[in-house]
Amino acid sequence: MSRWSVLGRGVAGLCVATLLAEQGESVEIITDETRLAASHWAGGMLAPWCEGESAPAQVTEWGQRAAGWWAQRVSGVTHHGTLVLAAPRDRQELIRFADMTQAHQWVEPATLEPQLENRFARGLFFADEAHLDPRQAMQQLRETLTQRGVDFHRGQPVGKVIDCRGIHAAQALPSLRAVRGEMLILQSRDVQFTRPIRLLHPRFPCYLVPRDEGRFMLGATMVESHDSSPISARAMMELLSAAWTIHPALAEARVLESGTGLRPAFSNNVPEIHYQDGRFYLNGMYRHGFLLAPVMAEKLMQQLKQESHS
Length: 310
Prior knowledge:
Strand content: 25-35%
Order of helices and strands: EHEEHHHEHEHEEHEEEEEEHEEEH
Strand order of the largest sheet: 5-6-4-11-12-13-10-14
Distance between the termini: 16 Å
Radius of gyration: 20 Å
Helix content: 25-40%
């Protein structure tokens, strides 16, 4: 049995620690409580087919394993698919999205979400996709790890290091860049949706993800920037305008929270595993943290197993 020190308490670090602990390894997680992980601001969409619109093919391929991985380890994985919409003036965006993706069908949106009524004539339904609440999922992983004896602390690592610190590892990984995302948490008692809704737009496509107690996560802008300051007024107005387009009643929703996260990404927006200076690095999740962290953690386990036998 080896001793492992996982740096980072975001989704990548928790997935790696979970698989190590399941294999009976000794694990500790080194945390920095002064910084929130980018995954704290995630939407929680397990949507490999939708991501095929702009992501490399391996994102769609690898991401298809995510929902099953999460469902085996946490509660709250919802398999209601994803609904993709566009305002009538942007219908060409919907056609383009259909051409760029697979595993969807054309639908009348109100047949899936009755509250949409007649606001959208056509939409794309990705029936095989799922979603979860990221914060609840990470909390459940933490609780399971604690029960397995995994120690969370801010001290120095005592085992072999696996660095999953996201953008905070940029000094060791010069090819890593930051991609800023902005989000809102809304609460509405007047609107109920059962699945994530993606609204297409030529300039600011967004998504609305239902959570419990009438809450929705509304996000997210993608800006090539290392700026981690609070959400901009422009981004907030664009996001709220998009919410109104989905359903006017969301204009009366309460803004419970706003936030920004710096997503770590390599040049091709696909995560990678590196080994240098005596430690492993798992990084570059871009906007696919919950979708790809499980499979990347599995790939790391395979690599560790091969090296232990070499």
